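#lab-general

N.A. 3:47 PM
ok so I finally got the sequence cleaned up, no stray characters, all 152 residues accounted for. can someone with queue access submit it? mine expired

B.Y. 3:52 PM
send it over

N.A. 3:53 PM
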Amino acid sequence: MSYVVSHSFNSLENLPEINLLEQQSFTSPWNRESLEVELSNPLNLITVIRSSSEAEITGYSMTRVLPPEAELLRVAVRPQIRRLGVGSVLLNELLQKLLTLKIAQVYLEVSEKNRPALSLYRKIGFTATGHRPGYYDNGSTGAITFSLTINF
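B.Y. 4:20 PM
back already:
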């Protein structure tokens, strides 16, 4: 399957679809108002992926870009098509874009219970750098922090 990927800063263009995807993807999703604030933030790069055969968003990521570093804030793929490689395509396209922006280091954190995400990040090349106990779910779940160096 082929995909179309687009990147934008400070854009509310895809707010309704991203909001729906957010609600479908996370146990503690951001609400529409929070998404609106973050999508409007000029420091946040929004990457959207669509199947070339479908109009609706297949997945998205939100990355805070503060050169020479970036922090991956959100990654979501439609539940019915997870584990089909969409997340890998999305992240690889994002990393290529960050490379053009001269980003040298990317950071992220993920729930220690989110095995698919942990596997994906390791597959892409991220390295676990730490553990934050009690970070998610009202203190019941820890976060694993990751880092990736992008070589120019």
